[in-house]
Amino acid sequence: MNAELLAQFRALLGEERARADADTLALYASDETPRSCPPLAVLFPVSHDQVAAIVRLALAHRLPLVARGAGSGNVGGAMPVPGSVVVSFECMNQVLEFDPVNRLIVVQTGVITDEIDRIARSAGLMYAPDPGSGAYSRIGGNLAMNAAGPRCVKYGATRDHVLGLRAVAGDGRELKTGSRTSKYATAFDLSRLLVGSEGALALITEATLRLVPAPETVATLRVCYGSNAAACAAVQRIMAQPVTPCALEFMDRRSLSAIREYGGAEGLPAGTEAVLMVEADGAREDVPRQIAALEAALHGDGLLEIQSGFDKAAIVRLWTARKSLSMAVKKIAPRKINEDVVVPIGRLADLVHAIDGLGERYRVPIVSFGHAGNGNLHVNIMVHEDDSEEMARAGACRDALIDVVLSLGGSLSGEHGIGSEKRRYVARELTPETLGFMYDLKRLFDPAGILNPGKKLPD
Amino acid sequence: MNAELLAQFRALLGEERARADADTLALYASDETPRSCPPLAVLFPVSHDQVAAIVRLALAHRLPLVARGAGSGNVGGAMPVPGSVVVSFECMNQVLEFDPVNRLIVVQTGVITDEIDRIARSAGLMYAPDPGSGAYSRIGGNLAMNAAGPRCVKYGATRDHVLGLRAVAGDGRELKTGSRTSKYATAFDLSRLLVGSEGALALITEATLRLVPAPETVATLRVCYGSNAAACAAVQRIMAQPVTPCALEFMDRRSLSAIREYGGAEGLPAGTEAVLMVEADGAREDVPRQIAALEAALHGDGLLEIQSGFDKAAIVRLWTARKSLSMAVKKIAPRKINEDVVVPIGRLADLVHAIDGLGERYRVPIVSFGHAGNGNLHVNIMVHEDDSEEMARAGACRDALIDVVLSLGGSLSGEHGIGSEKRRYVARELTPETLGFMYDLKRLFDPAGILNPGKKLPD
């Protein structure tokens, strides 16, 4: 980047907090998306005011800014675009206030997601959203994408746990949204407009998050079925009865084989084609009743086995295996095209059945797993990037998958967002009018188009 | 209204659905706000398309439109402004789809709130938000104001139960927001931007609402304290332990005296200065444990009595009394200035204490009751409209109350919204920048300013 501008950023942030050396640029050239584009510089602000100053300077120079939490997203949300500067929030990691009486916490948005939960637990509370990346993802990235996770089937996604935000819009104006109260009907809901806006409207610097009582205990079931259809039918039965589990995860046969060496698929009965991981949480006295209700709903055609009574260590192993899936599938082929589709629960079986058909038709291995209780599947089309014929088939398969999801009343993304990778599909789902309002909002908050250009919205 | 324009509305809607006779105009001249302003006409559309046609015709004539559900709001949200036309949604009362498998219902926005709950219960589900006006309020009004109610301490407000909307913006563009899925990370969150926007951005015509499992049973406690402070301390203890009640209502001494003849304050022990109504819901086997935990938290200084074991009829009587309060307080003085303030739970005792002081200082009777578990109090300053000296004191008292609430980290409105009645205070709470974004959003959705002018936003 031009030395004068870099010097100005250094004057704002300090010498060490505005970097343009080759190592740093290479390190921040991508997120978990399998492509890269080195930025012109990487900035490491430590405060809201520094972020505001960055936006204003960038605005004056029409310099694109790409906000970055941990870079753990996989849709290119934090991937630089040509000529852009990365604003890394990793040094904005201060907990500004923990207020257990009012069940809230105020954090800078570079705080690590699980750290928020850890602090909450010290006072018997919990930060409910639990993305698979929680151990390293930063809350700002969770807010930008409206991240979720297994617990969200019971507790809702990131959006449902935000009381208020501080942010800097693309036009340099500073925003303070929401309140510290659990009910609020005063302003327009600017908080939720920013949550899920993928760094394209404003840079979120601070968040006031809602905490909930931590459950006393959690119990886990591993449930094996002879077919995907049988597992999907069980998911529908679970969600049709009153006990909402705090996790209802689905893994297909290929997922199970991928995690075998992680210890997550030990002792599966012969003929297992799909596994559900089901959890209930709550008071110690109440969880057994919940588990009994869930077990009753899990029974049905194709059930092979319900395993329960796992000890803590075994539960950790199961979840480690489940959470390793995102990486473990790469054993099947070096690259995955990962779709994060979501359908109404009643159509989950149709989706899984259609995916089988697509895999056969396009001759690509597809690995599906995810948050079945929300109808949210991670569908991984496994490919070899150097095989252009296979890549073409995989692309066509992905394209057909999107059409299937939309025909089932579903949506492109349940929790990963759109980023650069899925925006070509957005116009298939949204009406032109609704898309028009999104462009209008983008222009309102970021008239110069400096915030994460080429993301979220189609061209 | 000008005969030609009326004829055009009649051509759109049918003869009977565009009225300008004196009786109709008088009937729609106000909502529950103690002021009135007859509209030029009242329109009764039956479909989204008719609403879209109304907005376009109104836009061509720069004619202000005031959306109206049941007219049960008390901040002037549905009160006509001079030269305006009321769009009544009462004929848009169709349930378009009830889908228990996917735990959702799609309704036109003129459907009565409790009717949605009644339908949900037929399949073991519940529509959780339960405003006191639910028996007659229409869901469109609930959406416009982000209405809540007692159950919202556990289940969240209207905003938390919206999956998607259809609407017509002030510029005539039609919007379709959200999805039918329980997770969603595709578009900007336009749904929640419209919820709570008080008919000033768009007219909401259809809503896809999230339903939750209905609890098997509910148990109710009536708890008497010797002082407001003791009751507030108990509220704080309740919200600091893990069992979240499904209602935590507060009534001060004057409230109790107002409902005495409704049967809601029978057999209170001598010295009762404040009552909490506390409920727990859930599975039959689990509610006793919850009640035991709540009772333990209710114990403390100033506790006079915990009554439990009410039968169904007694519970209905208690709630009828509680819900009659809004009207019953009028026994104390003919008019109430009703504030719907909300503070963080930890500041509730400070608020109640400050209100006592304000009542003394300004020599006005103040009746406070409300959803204490959310820190949301309905503070009623009782006045005689023809006593100008008293009215001046009451006005000053209200003004001071707002400052107290804001100094406690609270907000102007927890669930009633801003309307015409509170907009003068909005700039005290919101930063100029945040307010600027609200004006910008208003201009984006309603550039001609025809939707509910003079509401929500200060001039």
Mind explaining what this structure looks like?
The structure is a homodimer of 459-residue chains. Chain A is an alpha+beta fold. Chain A folds into four domains: 86 residues, Uridine Diphospho-n-acetylenolpyruvylglucosamine Reductase, domain 2 (2-Layer Sandwich); 119 residues, Uridine Diphospho-n-acetylenolpyruvylglucosamine Reductase, domain 3, CATH 3.30.465; 108 residues, 2-Layer Sandwich (Alpha-Beta Plaits), CATH 3.30.70.2190; 86 residues, Alpha-Beta Plaits, CATH 3.30.70. Chain A has 15 helices and 18 strands. In chain A, the strands form four sheets. A seven-stranded antiparallel beta sheet of chain A has the order 15-12-14-13-17-18-16, sandwiched between helices. A five-stranded antiparallel beta sheet of chain A has the order 5-6-10-8-9. In chain A, a hairpin with a 4-residue loop joins strand 8 and strand 9. In chain A, helix 1 packs antiparallel against helix 3 and helix 12 packs antiparallel against helix 13. The longest helix of chain A has 20 residues. Chain A is globular. Chain A starts with a helix and ends in a 14-residue tail after the last helix. Chains A and B meet through strand 9, helix 7, strand 11 and helix 15 of A and strand 9, helix 7, strand 11 and helix 15 of B.
